[in-house]
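ingest -> fold -> write
write: protein_1
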Amino acid sequence: VSFTFAKLKKVKETSFINTRKRICRIIKSLYNHYDFLLESDVLNEDEKMTFREISVDMEDDLAADSLNILSDYLMRYYGKKVMILLDEYDTPMQEAYVNGYWGELMPFISNLFNASFKTNPFLEKALMTGIIRVSREFAVTAASELYADSFGFTQQEVWEALDEYGLRGKREKVKDWYDGFTFGRRRDIYNPWSILNYLKFKKFSPYWANTSSNSLANQLIRRGNADVKMIFEDLLSGRTFWAEIDEQIVFSQLDDHTDAIWSLFLASGYLRLETYRMDEETGTDEYELALTNKEVRIMFKKLIEGWFAKAAPAYNQFIKALLAGDKKAMNQYINRVALATFSYFDTGKHPSKETEPERFYHGFVLGLMVELADRYVITSNRESGFGRYDVILEPREKNLDAFILEFKVFDPDEEDTLEDTVKAALNQIACRRYGVSLEEKGIRPECIRAYGFAFEGKRVLLG
C-alpha cells in the first residue's frame, strides 16, 4: 500500500476542514485501487458496507481506522501481512503550522497514524519519508541511519557521473553548490534532483530549492526574534554558529524554543553540520552549523527579497536615498516600508513596543545584506536588553562611502521625543567610536556616514 501527502503541499490548504477532506480523498483513492476486494469472497456483507462508507466526508473514527481496516482486508486476501509506504508524511503538519490550524489537525493525524502504524496487527512493516522524526509525536520508530547512504548520491558517485559527462573540471564548483548533506554518520551526500538536473542542463541553478515552497522556513525566520535574525545574518555572511540539536522535533516547540528551529532546519537540509563538542558544565552536545551550500544560500536570499515585495517601490527608493545621502527621502520611504511590512514580521502574539520594531529592523537589515551584498560587507552588533542595534556597511570598493546605522527604540523614561532618541543613537555611535574600525581600514572620516534610526511602534525617524 503506497501513497503520498506531497499533493497537500502543492494545493496549500489553509484550513483544517479542507486538509482533512484532501487526506480522506487520498484514502478513498486507495480503497478505489483495491475495489476488487468487493467482488471477492474475503469480505462479508458488513465489511463490504464498511468498505463503501470510506469517503471524503467519513466520520473521524472511520478515517482513523481506515488504513488499519484496509490492511486487514488485504492480509486476508493475499495471505500475508501488509507493507505501507507513505511519502512526505509530515507535509500536512507543516502546512497546518504555517496556516494556524496545527491544534485542530494533530488529534486527527495522531489517531490515523497510531491506528495505521502503531497498533496495526496486520502490518508487516512501514516506511515513512519526511523531514521530521516521528518518535516523539507518534511513538513509532525512526531508522534513517540504516539507510544513510541511500538518500542521495555519495561524493564518489557524483565524481564518477561528472567524469562520464565530461565535467571533471567542475568538481569543486559542484561541491560548493550541491554538497553538504549529512545522514546519520555519513557526510558529503549530494541531492539527487540537483545533480541530475545539472548533468542534464550543464548549468548551475538552485534546482532542489525551487521544487519546494519553503513556506515553513520563511515564516520561522520572518517572525523569529532578534536572535534568530542575527544568526541568519551570520549565516548569509558565510559564518557558522553553535546550537543544541534535538532530532525529535515537536512542532509546538517552534514558537518558543530557538534551538527547535535550527533542529528543523538541519533535518530539512537547510543547514549542515561542521563539527560538535560537549559542554562539560552542562553535559549537553553543541553543534556548529552553517548553510548547507550555495543552492540553499540563494534560496534564502530570494525568501528575504520576498519579504519586501509588497513595499518594493518604497524599499528600492530608500536604498537609493541611503546611498545618495538624502535624509528627507530616507525618512519618507523608511516609514512607507515600515507601514507596509510591520505586520509581516508580527508573530500574532501581541509583541511589546520594543520587540515589535526589533523584529522589523532585524528583518530590514537582512534585506540590506541581500540587496547590497555585492557592494558592501555588512556586520552588526546587538546590545541585548537595551533596544539598541548597530550595523556597519563597509564598502568593497574604495570609491564608495561607508555607513554606520544605529537602531534604537524610543524609551519614554529617558527621552521625551523621537528626536531625542535619534540624538541618543547618534551619540552612541560617537561614544563607541564605531568609525575607528573603518578608518583603520583606510576609509577617510569624511567618507563615513552615520545615521540614527528611532522607532516608536510603526513610526520611524531617521537623522
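write: protein_2
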Amino acid sequence: MAALIYSVAAIVFLFAIGATGASTENTNPPPSNKVSKNNTTVSSNSTANEIATTTNVVSNTSAGNSVSNNATTNTDSNQASVNNTAGPVPTNNTSSSSGSTSSTSKNSTKKTTNTSSNTSNTSNVCRSNWSAGVYHTYRFNLINPCKTVSGTVEIVRHEADHDYHLDIKLDSQYKNLLASGNYKYQHGYLVVEIIPMDQPYVTIPHVGQHATFTGAVVDDKDHGWNEVHPAWLVNGKGKLSYTKAAARKSVVTGICGNGDSDCPTSSSSSSSGSSNTTSKSNTTSSSTGNLTIVSSSLTRNPGQYASIKVKTKPNVQGTIEVDYSSGPSHSSSLNPKTADPNGYITWTWKVGSRTTPGNWPVTITADRQTVKTTLHLK
C-alpha cells in the first residue's frame, strides 16, 4: 500500500514538473533575431550581459559617441551618428552666406558711392590742361597732373621769370613726393611754383604760414628735384579756367623775363632780355670752321635759365659741356642734340639756385669742330 502511495506521489510530482516547464516555456517571448534600437542587430543567442552592452552602446551611439566593437551597427546608424556631430546643416550656412553676400553688396554700394564722390571732388580742383601758361614744358617729366599737398612755407621769392618760388616743408603724409634732389638742394622741401597767369587769383602765403597747394607734380629734369609746377589753387582759392591768350601771355612773360633767346621780342642775332643782362662776349658770334655761335644768354643769376644757339652742318650731332666748380653739369637739358635741317642747335638749361657765382667755361663740339665761351654767374 505504501508502495502504491509512493508511486502515485511520484506520478503527481512528475506531472507537476511537466506543467511548470510548459508554463515557463509559454511565458518566454518567442524567438527573435533582432533587438530593435536604432537599427542595432543582436544575435538571439546573445547573453543578457551582451544585450545590456548592446543597449548601452546603442544609447551612446545616439548621443554621438563612438560605437564599441562589441556591438554591430549598420551603415545607416553610423551615418546618423555622423550627422549628429556635423554641426549646423548646410542650408543654414547657405542662408548665412547669402546674408553676408547681401551685406557685402551693401558695402560695395557704399564704397562705389564714396569713390564717385571723391572723383567728383577731384575734378573740381583739377585743370583740364596742367601745363597751360607754363613755358618750356620739356624741362619736366609729369608725375601727377593734379595733386593737393600741404605744409609750412619756408622760403618765398619772386624769380626773374616772374614765377613765385616757394619752398614747402611738407606735412608727413606727402613726404613720399620728395626726390633725392629735394633733400640735396632744397633742404628736404618741396618746390612750389606759381606762374604769372595764376598770380592774380591766389594769395601768396608768407613764410611760416601753413597752406595747401593744388597743381601738377613734376620732375624738374634740370635739377633732379620734384615740384608742384604750376600751382593753380592756394588754400583752395584760384581759377581753374583760362583763355588761350592768358596762357600765351604767361608763357611769353616767363620766357622773356628769364632772358631766353626765344623771347618773341628778341632778334635772332642778339641775346634776349634787357641789354644790361648780357655781355658783349656773349652776343658776339664766334666760329670755328662750320661751327658758329649765333646767339646766347650767358650772363645770369643762380636759379635763372641760360641758353645758347649754334649753327653747324645740317643733321649733325652737337654736344655741350658746362663746367662748374663742382665739375661738369649733368643736366639732361645739356644732352647731345642733332642739328635741324638748317643746321641750328639750341640748348636751354636752368642754372641751379645754389650754383657758385663766377665765370664757368662752356664748350660746344659739332662736326669735329669746337667753340668755347663763358657762362657768367652773378
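write: annotation protein_2
Helices lie at 2-27, 48-62, 75-84, 90-123, 180-185, 244-257, 280-283.
The mean pLDDT is 72.
pipeline exit 0
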